[in-house]
What does this fold into?
Amino acid sequence: MTYTEADTGDLEAVQKVLLPNTKAVFIETPSNPTMQITDIRKICEWAHSKNLKVIVDNTFLTPYFQKPLQLGADIVLHSATKYLGGHNDLLAGVLVTKHEEDTARIKFLQNTIGACLSPFDSWLLLRGLKTLPLRMERHASSARVLAAWLQKQPKVRKVYYPGLPKSLRYETNAAQTGGNGGMISFEVDSENTARSILSKVKLVLFAESLGGTETLLTYPLLQTHADVPREEALAKGINERLLRLSVGLEAPEDIIADLAQAFD
It folds into this structure.
């Protein structure tokens, strides 16, 4: 399989990388970890005019806040390990299809290679889905408070959160979502500050993953995106000063208190 990359929030950039053998457009909105936004409707309208399928990674917002199939997408995927499961206790993935031919192909693969969840993992995922609306509302409400607080911190140079009115493509995101989720990334003034924060947090856990009940702080350059070539990562804003926060279900004032002492 081959692919070409582009800022999918820029339709002209996507059009320029179209090749004769292109079969689909894959987008993630908001993107990980810099929360870039893509206009799903616009991409779908153009892609379908070229007989391309549109696949959307909807892990960050879940079906509760964003419904790509209703916006024109053909296939939606989730890392169900994250918000859909919601408790950091299973590994799972979900594919949702709009068209019967895609459903039939996936069913064939499941049947022939066994790409399906065990009964217990399925039960854990169904358990998580029962509380998804409540959890997503709490994640999002706390994230709004945290993002506003981070903007006021002297050592923070930039905050990436789609719910901030001055964020890039804010209107596009607002038009296609019902909320902004619980993921925040922020850039501090130096690598030393970033590493110091990671070493000092107590309530907040320095760990990978996201979407669980606990607030997790991640260092993308050396963790989630460690396999991305350094020059490519830096060009995308994934540098030694960038931290990613998955806001959990704790009281937002407790999260802020922990971050505040870590910033000192």
About this structure: The mean pLDDT is 96. The domain at 11-130 is CATH 3.40.640.10 (Aspartate Aminotransferase; domain 2). The radius of gyration is 19 Å.
